[in-house]
Amino acid sequence: MLNSNQSSEHASRRRVFIIIFIILTGIIFLARLFYIQVIDHRYKVYASSNVQRTITEYPARGLIYDRNGELLVYNEPYYDLMVIPAQVGEIDTTEFISLFDITREQFDNRMQSARHFSRFTPSLFQRQISKDSYAAIQEKLFRFPGFFVQPRTLRKYVHPIAAHTFGYVGEAGPSVIENEPYYRQGDYIGISGIEKHYEEELRGHKGSRIVMVDALNRAIGSFQDGRYDTMAVAGTDLYSSLDMDLQIYGEKLMQNKRGSIVAVEPSTGQILALVTSPGYDPDLLVGRVRSRNYRMLQADTLNPLFNRALMANYPPGSVFKTANFLIGLQEGGINANSTYSCPGHYRSGGITIRCRPHPQPVNPITAIQHSCNTFSAIQFRNTLELPKFESMQEALTNWRNHLMSMGFARAFNSDLPHELPGLLGSADYYDQVYGTRGWRALTVISLSIGQGEIGTTPIQLANFAAIVANRGFYHTPHVVKAIGAPDNLNPDYIEPNYTTIDSMHYEIMAEAMFETVEAGTGRFSRIPDIPMAGKTGTVQNPHGENHSAFIAFAPVEEPQIAISVIVENAGSGAAWAAPISSLMVEKYLTGEIKRGWFEQRILDAKF
After folding, report:
1. Could you give all domains of the chain from N- to C-terminal order, each with its CATH number?
2. Within a 10 A sphere around the Cβ of 99, how many other Cβ atoms?
3. Which residues pair with 169 in a beta bridge?
4. 192 near 418, Cβ under 8 Å?
């Protein structure tokens, strides 16, 4: 038997054990409760998701207007179907897939993907349900717990024009979401064109709204009277420099043709029209059909996705003689009174460049007026072989630097994404091909007539026309005139860029280009009562018919428009590119076309 002392000691130990057990049990329960309430949010999320729903308020994307305030791009409401997998119970799957026009396999795959993303937070199930379709399913949606719609907007276009300029909007990819905290799965972002360059201005700022839902998954009111809601802020409107009527007209003229039109306001660098043909309807790359239509456009052998105005590299042909003459005048290879006879060709060292018949002799003005190849070759060679240059490398580098100051051989890096820089042969290139002592002016003589190792983009040619119009400077070509308000001019393109050629030489070339239209190779495209200056070009094409090229500006004094036109495989610049330029200038300056027969000839042409 235990004595009284032993019994008392045993009872004391048991009491201590019970107290320790109770304390440990309490600590375990408290720790578990702390973990559930503070660290692990699954249960809180699950509980709240049954009575609350956080809806992202997507802002309306900024509108896009033309230079005159005419609406070009707007928004139309659509809806995304969202799902919270943890709330999806037993539903009539057959009715569901019939209602949303999907297959059972698509339903299963999307549910699996949603569960993989998160069981307790919303994820995208089906995107871009039209407002008409939503009206039909709205009354039946309560039958499918865990599903709800998220209001969104998609782009719409007033006219099916300027697709390459506007660009398009698509879903943000994984790399964007990883690098940009603003974007989440299912968010949209500008992929190309204006939409891409001005994404931050156009997108606005997202808001959020917490609503209470009942057992049937129906919204019954805001949470705590909207105390925690935030308002979406609409994107900023853009005022493009495009003239809607001129853009529509340019695309009409280029139907059934391959090529481009670029029209610029010389005094500002604002692009009035940017046409690339063939093009496409921008509505094709909107909504759920975008991926399918994009593949269709990619497969089109006419390559409508290719932006010829910014990316196509063409030898400029005789259009380039004007730039070469400017360099010759600046460096002293020729002067305003230089005169040469043309026997119908230029021949030297086994090389022959043929020339068309024209009045004799020629000087810098009449050589441009009649597009004399002989004069061009002589002045080019004279300029490169000037005694002040210690080597041919130095002479060609000097020539190339002048051209780069005019915007050739480099991208403008403006608000037009994906622009290519073109091509301009360098001394290093010729050294690699021929050796440092293996080439001379005659080796590269084809550059004198805009052929050889040279490629220019249509926007560069339009910019060059603007330079001559301005007598020696240009504003970077750009397509957004103002941001937020019509008078809030885009600050990035206000400063002028001056070339390395003196303005007095541009006066000579402006006169030469005027004479080209008045009584030279471009006389067929003369506009009654509008003095226009221009230069024709017939671009040699080893892959088929020659390309037709023309640059122009008008009026000659105080010019309001400068333009370049390329029509692929159309032959003479005077026959096709010059008339198109003439019609565009007439349309812009007068608002109408009086030469109906002249216009109809262009509309009927197919190349």
Report:
1. 52-240 (3.90.1310.10), 244-604 (3.40.710.10)
2. 16
3. 190
4. yes
